[in-house]
Design goal:
By secondary structure, the chain is mostly helical. The protein is built from ten helices and no strands.
């Protein structure tokens, strides 16, 4: 894909994110996305057959951006340090990218999630990397063996709650608070 085409597609994604953050899925028509991205509506349909396809591809794009950020960890670090690093990077990324966080939250609560789930391709949204990471820890005897949904709930659930508390203005937390949360998670899963 040439740079100009890539930039148009990225502009469509960024505009869609912004508008969905402001107006939700239903309140964001394709014409408004085109106007905000400064492209013709036909250009959007060149890349995406429908709004549904745009939303599904935007989710993939968001997950790729997030995973690229959080999994940029030195694989030679001890497992515990990587466990902490990935979690803190996830929290920091979503706090810095509130539009992506809110989009992902809305996506999981929408019919789009069921459509995506039917594809049964975990690499589509990065679950495979997290799954492999937890398997590594369990096989090495560093963390307890747990089924994947359980450990994801223990690891990601507090991160999501923490991000919401800060994003929605319920509280302000410090780096020390963040350290305490991940330490509690670690103590719950380590062997």
């Amino acid at each position: 894909m040439n740079v100009q085409l890539h930039n148009k597609k990225e502009a469509i994604f960024e505009s869609t994110l912004h508008l969905i953050y402001e107006y939700g899925f239903r309140g964001t028509p394709m014409s408004q996305i085109a106007n905000h991205a400064n492209v013709a509506t036909g250009t959007i349909y060149h890349y995406f057959a429908s709004k549904d396809e745009l939303i599904l591809e935007l989710f993939k794009y968001c997950r790729e951006q997030t995973n690229e950020h959080i999994f940029s960890v030195d694989k030679n670090l001890p497992y515990k340090e990587r466990f902490f690093f990935i979690w803190k990077r996830l929290v920091a990324y979503y706090l810095d990218h509130k539009e992506i966080f809110r989009f992902v939250e809305q996506f999981y609560s929408s019919p789009y999630f069921a459509i995506m789930q039917s594809s049964k391709d975990p690499s589509y949204y990065g679950v495979d990397k997290l799954h492999q990471f937890f398997e590594e820890g369990a096989k090495s005897g560093i963390i307890r063996e747990m089924n994947f949904p359980t450990i994801v709930s223990v690891y990601i659930g507090p991160a999501t709650s923490y991000i919401k508390n800060i994003s929605y203005g319920f509280c302000k937390m410090t780096d020390s608070d963040r350290d305490n949360i991940i330490e509690i998670i670690w103590n719950g899963v380590k062997k």
